[in-house]
Amino acid sequence: MTTPAPIQMKIDFVSDVSCPWCVIGLKSLEDALGRVSGEVQAELHFQPFELNPRMPAEGQDIGEHLAEKYGSTPEQSQRNREMIRARGQDVGFTFSMDKRSRIYNTFDAHRLLHWAEEEGEGRQRALKEALFKAYFTDGASPGSHEVLARVAGEVGLDITRTKAILASDEYADAVREREQFYLQQGIHAVPAVIINDKHLISGGQPAEVFEQALRQIAAAG
Hints:
With 221 residues, the protein is of the alpha+beta class. The protein has a single domain, classed as Glutaredoxin (3-Layer(aba) Sandwich), CATH 3.40.30. It has helices spanning 20-35, 62-70, 74-90, 107-119, 123-137, 145-154, 159-166, 172-184, 207-220; strands at 7-15, 40-48, 60-61, 102-103, 192-195, 199-202. Strand 1, helix 1 and strand 2 form a beta-alpha-beta unit. The radius of gyration is 18 Å and the shape is globular. The chain starts with 6 loop residues before the first strand and ends with a helix.
């Protein structure tokens, strides 16, 4: 009996590198893809979304930012941080809350991610995951050119080319164009996982939710 070929799927993962729920969503999606391995073969693309596009280069204190943006009290922020830390632990990711005290501008990180996709061989995914670790686990700024160049080098991207991109406006228009596209499609919160350009799963869902969706879409052909 011939084993049927895996169903091919395109998955656009719309997210920001400063979004903790995006980390949780990605880890859960990866878990789900592992569960359907052999049945589904996914082509994963990371699309840009800025939670704070007007954030200055020096960033802002997290507590101050959450109070201004969401009206969160210190107690509410602490409860939310603990929930995120616990969810991260469940999916095998370490959120070092004591090392992350500021929110930063992430536009340059998105420019590098756009370039990394062109480099092929899973470089974009490797860079995305390395940026998540740099910010949420190590407490480094994803807005720092020094940090971005180091992280890019760690995942095998050319450091000289990385620095040249960061020193210019290269890929800026392309990133803004993609950001506007998803905003116009009604994406105003992340993570947003779009399968085959038409099935939307919002939020840092558990692996079971992604697995069920992948199986249903595969069964529908």
